[in-house]
Amino acid sequence: MARIAGVDLPKGKPIKVALQHVYGIGPTSSQRILAAAEVPPDIRVHDLSEEQVSQLRSVVDKQYKVEGDLRREVQFNIKRLIDTGCYRGTRHRMSLPVRGQRTRTNARTRRGVRKTVAGRGQRRGVAKK
Question: Of the four listed, 45, 69, 96, 110, which is most buried by Cβ atoms within 10 Å?
Fold first, then answer.
């Protein structure tokens, strides 16, 4: 079983895809890691030798910030934005989109489930009493 940066890689997948299960490694980083470790990208994880796994592990440990360290750094950056009180920090604090997306419609992922508000029912066509 291949374990890199504290993550068990899925056995049946090609190594270039399986490396992407590690937080902080994407498609391009995966190809660079495989080139540096001199491992063919189409080999399956269960076909890797112990030597190849150790080469991959050493390349990832030396050259990349992944998993816990990277998560910690990202959270620290968000906390710094919030503490400085900048616009992006304010948006993070209010759980709203940070990068200029519209919020009048289509911000459900960030804002959560709809909350009903009293007095916002059917108003058109209703005669005043």
Answer: 45
Burial status of residue 113 (CB atoms within 10 A of its CB: 0-12, 13-18, 19 or more): exposed
Q: What is the mean pLDDT of residues 46-71?
A: 92
Q: Is residue 127 within 8 Å of 121, Cβ to Cβ?
A: no
68-111: what fold?
Answer: 30s ribosomal protein s13; domain 2 (4.10.910)
Q: Quick one: average pLDDT of 28-39?
A: 94
Q: Which helix (H) or strand (E) holds 3?
A: strand 3-4
pLDDT at residue 125 greater than cutoff 70: no
Q: What is the pTM of this model?
A: 0.75
Domain boundaries in the chain? 3-64, 68-111
Do residues 33 and 25 touch, judged by C-beta distance below 8 A? yes
